[in-house]
Amino acid sequence: MKQDWLLTKLSDVYDVRDGTHDSPKYQKEGFPLITSKNLKNGKLLFDNVNLISEDDYLKINQRSKVDQGDVLFAMIGTIGNPVVVDATPSFAIKNVALFKTNKLQNSNFLKYYLESEFVIQKMLADAKGTTQKFVGLGYLRSFPILLPSLQEQRRIVEILDQVFAAIVQAKENTEKNLKNVKELFDSYLHGVNAVKEPLGNLVNITTGKLDANAANENGKYPFFTCSREIFQINQYAFDCEAILLAGNNAVGDFNVKHTKVNLMLTRGHM
Predict the structure, then answer these.
(1) pLDDT of the residue at 120
(2) Residue that wins the pLDDT comparison between 227 and 176
(3) What are the tens digits of pLDDT across the range 51-95?
(4) Complete edge-to-edge strand list for the sheet that includes strand 267-269
(5) Which string of DSSP letters, residue by residue, matches 220-240?
(6) 132, 192, 216, 263 - which has most CB atoms within 10 Å?
(7) What count of other Cβ atoms lies within 10 Å of the Cβ of residue 175?
(8) Distance (Å) of CA 155 to CA 45, 56, 63, 117
(9) Side-chain half-sphere of 150: how many Cα atoms within 13 Å?
(10) DSSP readout, 155-196?
(11) How many CB atoms lie within 10 A of CB 265?
């Protein structure tokens, strides 16, 4: 730990609250009630939000009013997904942790800390509940944080912002290049003056003979089904180079394989 960094609790630095635990009546018009499902990828999503009356909105905000610069954190179900409130809010929160910040702290530094691998893994390990995992308000208030000076917080946020912006740009460039390659390939195919031939005349098309229940967790060979997940099995049915695709094309992936594999009944092989 750096000498000028302070090891403390979240509640010693931030005003840590949570939203209502009641279930107000939903209606067609009114104020948005933000829950864990509305926090995703650092943003607030309002396209699938429930609306409540003004009376319920005001009642909830008596104890958990959200202000610009605060940080929201999902504490039930999917734990994490912190979001910095970057605009003047007009919503209430339910089962969501609220970290109220001040001018002496950087909201984005707290967001990066709360979504770090260390924090999320520790909270998941400590979470309570069986059907639906959760972390309580008392747990969040006592959770440790290593806090540098405000100047250092700003410096760290600036570096991380640049890194993540570069990652997003690289991803966008990759997707654009893939799209260009596919368009070029499609235009080439349509421009070729060739005789059309049924695919079955060129390759052997067959399907698997088993269902998903044939999978064995400790099996020796990969077992492909319509799922994206690859299972295991103790017997193989094919030992050749092949293109695999889901029989109902649910996955939409066309993968070239050359290994000993087995297939579920609805998975195509050619």
Answers:
(1) 94
(2) 176
(3) 999 999 999 999 999 999 999 999 998 899 999 999 999 999 999
(4) 206-207, 267-269, 238-246, 255-263, 221-224, 231-233
(5) SEEEE-SSSS-EEES--SEEE
(6) 263
(7) 10
(8) 29, 40, 33, 20
(9) 8
(10) HHHHHHHHHHHHHHHHHHHHHHHHHHHHHHHHHHHHH-----
(11) 14
Q: CA–CA separation, 235 vs 227, rounded Å?
A: 19
DSSP per residue over the chain, as a string? --TT-EEEEHHHHSEEEE-B-S-PPPBSSSEEEE-GGGEETTEE--TT-EEE-HHHHHHHHHHH---TT-EEEE-BSS-EEEEE--S----EEBSEEEEE--TTS-HHHHHHHHTSHHHHHHHHHH-B-SSS-B--HHHHHT-EEEE--HHHHHHHHHHHHHHHHHHHHHHHHHHHHHHHHHHHHHHHHHH-------GGGTS--EE--B-GGG--TT-SEEEE-SSSS-EEES--SEEEEEEEEETT-SS---EEEEEEEEEBTTEEE-
Enter the tokens of residue 184.
Answer: 């070029």
Amino acid at 103: K
Structure confidence by residue, pLDDT tens digits, 203-241 = 888 877 787 788 887 788 888 877 777 888 888 888 888
Here the tokens at position 57 are 């909105």
Tokens of 258: 């050359």
CB-count burial class (<10 Å; 0-12, 13-18, 19+) for 222: middle
Among candidates 100, 36, 96, which has minimal Cα distance to 67? 100
Give me 171's structure tokens: 């991803």
Cα 183 to chain centroid distance, Å, stands at 30
- Nearest by Cα to 68 from 94, 33, 41, 103: 103
Which position has the token pair 């308000």? 137
> For the chain, what is the mean pLDDT?
87
